[in-house]
Amino acid sequence: MLNDSTARYGSVSKFFHWVMATLLAWQFLKFFDRISDGEHWVGENLVPYHVSIGTVLLLLVVLRLVWSIRQSKQRPEPENASRVLVKAGHGLLYLSMLLMPISGIMYLVGKGYGLKVFGMQLIARGEEMQWMADLGHYHSPIAWVMLVLVAGHIVMGLVHHFIKKDNTLKRML
Question: Is residue 36 predicted with pLDDT exceeding 90?
């Protein structure tokens, strides 16, 4: 089933969710780059793809937002008591998934590095633009907020599965 239904998410929504979850987990490995100046396996083998994976995530989140809007009428709805919290939590997750790659690109372009994705120069190197670099400095604080949001998302999925036993997690599995 490609489309979502009121009972569960369809295969397209599940694809977006789990592929993006995997790529975000990879991106969060960048936190290890702060240890020993990246001189370890994670820093040497995974972190070099950080910009490329971030750019892929930006494309995926835009496609996912379009898909979500198209599916909004037939998606599973949270229970009435938590509807506002669920919508706010998901909204903040989507916002952070958009702001992360945008702020990263702003930092790179603002510093004059341009944007190179999987070896292809998408935005040429150029002059520094301080205003853009300044906005790009929010990339790290947004990453920490996003890490907390993702952790909360995981915890709530587990709470619904193991404590409430309401099949919320099964809708996305």
Answer: no
Among 95, 105, 106, smallest CA distance to 149 is for: 95
Alpha carbon 35 to chain centroid, angstroms = 23
- pTM for the model stands at 0.90
Instruction: Write the CB contacts of 38 (distance below 8 Å, at least 6 apart in sequence).
Output: 32, 44, 47
CA distance 21 to 25: 6
Sequence-ordered list of residues with C-beta below 8 angstroms from that of 75, at least 6 positions apart, any chain? 4, 6, 9, 13, 68
Q: Which residues contact 126 (CB under 8 A, 6 or more apart)?
A: 109, 112, 114
Give the integer Cα–Cα distance in Å for 115 and 91. Answer: 27
Look at residue 12 and tell me whether its pLDDT is greater than 80: yes
Could you tell me where the DSSP H helices lie in the chain?
11-28, 41-45, 50-71, 83-110, 130-136, 139-158
